[in-house]
Amino acid sequence: MTGPDRPDRATVDERIAAVRARRPRLRDERVTLAHGAGGKASRALVDAVFLEVFDDPALAALGDAAVLDPPAVGEQLSISTDSFVVQPRRFPGGSIGDLAVNGTINDVVAGGGRPDWLSVAFVIEEGFAVAELRAIVADMAAAARAAGVRIVTGDTKVVQAGAADGVYITTTGVGHVPVGRRLDARTVEPGDAVVLTGTLADHGMAVMLARGELAIEADIASDTAALHELAEALLAAAPDTRWLRDPTRGGLGTSLNELAEAAGCGVILAEEALPVRPTVAGACDLLGIDPIYVANEGKLVAVVPAAQTEAAIDALRAHPLGADAAVIGEIRAEPASTVVMRTAMGGSRVVDMLVGDPLPRIC
Amino acid sequence: MKFVDEFRDPAAGRAAIERITALAAAQDRGFKFMEVCGGHTHTIYRHGIEQLLPAPVELVHGPGCPVCVIPMGRVDDALHLAAQPGVTLTSFGDMMRVPGSTSTLLDAKAGGADVRMVYSPLDALAVAEREPDRHVVFFAVGFETTSPSTAVTLQRARALGIDNFSVFSNHVRIVPPLRAILTAPELDLDGFIGPGHVSTVIGNRPYQFIPDEFSIPLVTAGFEPLDVIQAIEMLLRQYDEGRCRVENQYTRVVRDEGNLRAQQLLEEVFTTRDTFEWRGLGWIPHSGMAIAEPYADLDSERRFTLPGARVEDPPACECGPVLRGVLKPWECGVFGTACTPETPIGTCMVSSEGACAAYYEFGRLRVADEPDPLPLVSADRARR
User: Fold this and answer.
1) DSSP three-state, residue B150
2) What is the pLDDT of residue B213?
3) pLDDT tens-place string over residues A233-278
4) Which member of A275, A334, A345 has the closest CB to residue B225?
5) Where in the sequence of chain A do the CATH 3.90.650.10 domains occur?
6) Are B139 and A362 in contact (CB under 8 A)?
7) pLDDT class for B1, splitting at 50, 70, 90?
């Protein structure tokens, strides 16, 4: 049939082509299984929520893999992967998005690397609010941008309601280790200093209180931060730094036990030298939790040769993330493979690995 | 860490230790003092107080860790409750790893039972209110420190008309085990550091029989390191001045008559059992608290049929002599080998207030290992 008011076939085809060429739009308020099925809805979610915000050419190419330039000759790679499942997803001082970027960057940093790239994978529970997902992604983009790290590849899966708790994020970070840099517990020697870059237990206590199960309110914020600059400042001032860690889960106590074991030496801490904010110390006291076992997300602990300790501390304190840096202990030959705390009272005690979760004492 | 708190002032601590050393030297004999409360055990190890004391003064760790005295049969009963369809079992975190005869609450949780950790019995009641389709059991343990909060919770459940809630009471009283320890034949003690928190509720008068009948002094103490050190000094001073009394170091909190309202509350909600089993100490008359008749419908022991089996402590476990202060933790045959905080055989190894766990975690350090002062730390502190 033909007529003046009927479009010809060529026009219709053109119109279809125009619509098909349009980027799919995300109208849904909640993530559904369709968003993980790999079809148009998936594309809409990736486009609208991830690509625009992460804004990276390698990611936007939507290939199966990001193709990147290798590090310079003689450099090594530092790679680390971590999954983030924190509850609540937003807490004073940060969100799961901040942690997913900063946490992995810090692991790369602790390996001596300068972080370059991140890979990001999401497992999303069906029904998750798109608005919250956008907020998390915005936090991740801001954290990555602040750290100068590119998000170059990623993946999204949606699972049935009940099969996951909201959203889980896995990030893998890749950094390059400058020529000649060697951080290894086995190089630690008696007489070295143990340096901590700031206050203990802020993150763990902030999250514990944010869960709202404890009926305690205190002004405690997470310390989540990317530590690449702070680490570079330390390593520039104390180039013979032996060992570096970011004491996250399990806290300083666990990291130092791993050090003592790997190095075979004694780690002697001075209780009164450990920096802890008074509100954090108070909350820990109330709950019977030792701050030395509580997670940090913006602190480094390092072993530095005695001769470079002063320079290390000065450099750390000159950086805003290291203002509370302190020498908290020393390496001794004995007692072998043990962490010991000299208490403020003048006694001493073993700081062992934590067993299980830090369970609050009941009286 | 800053120790601006006057009860953690190292200089005051050193001065008190010097006085203790002088007092002990003047008596020219040894002293064995038992700290009754697990909170004190924790303070002593955490702050390394034992090493500061002169050789003649020895500390013995008593039965006051509420988790440590729960017998296996009662844990089995709790596991049985957790296995009932529709039941949510709630308890304090410390109870989660306490071994029953075959498993722990943590194992039951991993196996699919609805076991949840709460921070107070009121939290457990809130779960019952939120989830009316579940029956929420609160696995209650503890001395007179925690029983008042359980009592308040039962009153509240009654006031709110919540009936999908019950309490499995394992509350115990502090005085009967003290008498049991004092009448045990192998005991040799020269004084008690009395439990501060319990005394807040019951006061100091219930301890009067200890000097009266057994000629042993008791000083009720707080939980900061200086509290404990000062209590030791007060005990020695009694010997020095020829007194034998109940004294109160924790005057900022404890009154001689205790908290009369809390006592009245306990009277109303609980009734004293004829006898109750204690881990390592056996059956002690009038030591347990059951839920009183007016609250019978909120009593798990009446709402459910419990196995109530008596389970012998594992033969290798010497929690009993440790709880009575006869054995030091490390003198137990399985300490640190078969029995560790990861795989506890006895309950003393579970809670950080338990004498064994406290020693394992903090204490196993010979004096010879004690490091010298730390020059790099001192230099850094001097520069600040």
Assistant:
1) helix
2) 96
3) 999 999 999 999 999 989 999 999 999 999 999 999 999 999 999 9
4) A345
5) 185-350
6) no
7) very low
Min Cα separation A206/chain B (Å): 17
For residue range B139-161, what is the model confidence (pLDDT) as tens digits? 999 999 999 999 999 999 999 99
Q: Would residue B84 count as lying in a domain?
A: yes
Predicted local confidence at residue B260, as pLDDT: 95
CATH of domain A185-350: 3.90.650.10
Q: What count of other Cβ atoms lies within 10 Å of the Cβ of residue B354?
A: 31
> Amino acid identity of A87?
Q
For residue B312, being part of any structural domain is answered with no
Q: Which domain holds residue B195?
A: 6-33+50-61+184-245
Residues B225 and B106 in one domain: no
Residues B79/B237, Cβ–Cβ less than 8 Å: no
Closest Cα partner for A226 from A113, A132, A318? A113
pTM: 0.85
Checking phi first, is residue A180 left (phi over 0); if not, alpha (psi -120 to 50) or beta? Answer: left
CATH architecture of A33-177: 2-Layer Sandwich (3.30)
For position B150, which CATH number holds? 3.40.50.11740
pLDDT above 90 (res A221)? yes
Residue B217: which CATH number? 3.40.50.11750
Best of B90, B109, B351, B374 to substitute, by most chain A Cβ atoms within 10 angstroms, is B374
Say whether A266 and B371 touch across the interface (CB within 8 A): yes
- For testing contact with chain B, the best of A313, A343, A354 (most B CBs within 10 A): A343
**ipTM rounded to 2 decimals:** 0.80
